[in-house]
Design goal:
Helix 1 packs across helix 2. This protein has one domain. It is an all-alpha fold.
Length: 125
């Protein structure tokens, strides 16, 4: 449950950052290399997994720098850090889109938590 609370905190921080009042005339133009909403949602899920693991002294029991995990993330999704940053900035000007993406992220974490709880129950039997 503590892990889930950490994820909620990250998700809410992202949502609040995305909800800054924005005048429609000051919204950025859609970047040519914009990451699709579906791909961005998957990336946000992985970003929060990395950040959740990072809250400990070591990431998943090793001593690798967290940058290694972000490099792996960008490679996994075949995007650059700049492309991710630009896309995140673009979507942050559209709170409804960003909230829809985070709804999926939160639902995914809830599903993960349920699966872990089920597995723990099976192991205790």
């Amino acid at each position: 449950m503590r892990i889930l609370n950490t994820y909620y905190a990250f998700a809410l921080a992202g949502i609040f950052a995305a909800c800054n009042p924005t005048d429609a005339s000051h919204r950025p133009d859609k970047p040519d290399n914009l990451i699709s909403e579906k791909k961005m949602t998957s990336m946000l899920l992985d970003v929060h997994l990395i950040e959740g693991a990072r809250s400990g002294v070591r990431v998943l029991g090793d001593s690798a720098n967290v940058d290694v995990y972000y490099q792996g993330l960008f490679k996994k999704y075949d995007v650059t850090q700049g492309q991710f940053d630009t896309s995140f900035q673009y979507y942050s000007h559209y709170p409804r889109k960003m909230m829809a993406m985070y709804d999926v992220v939160i639902d995914s974490f809830n599903l993960m938590e349920m699966k872990i709880a089920e597995e723990e129950k099976r192991q205790q039997r």
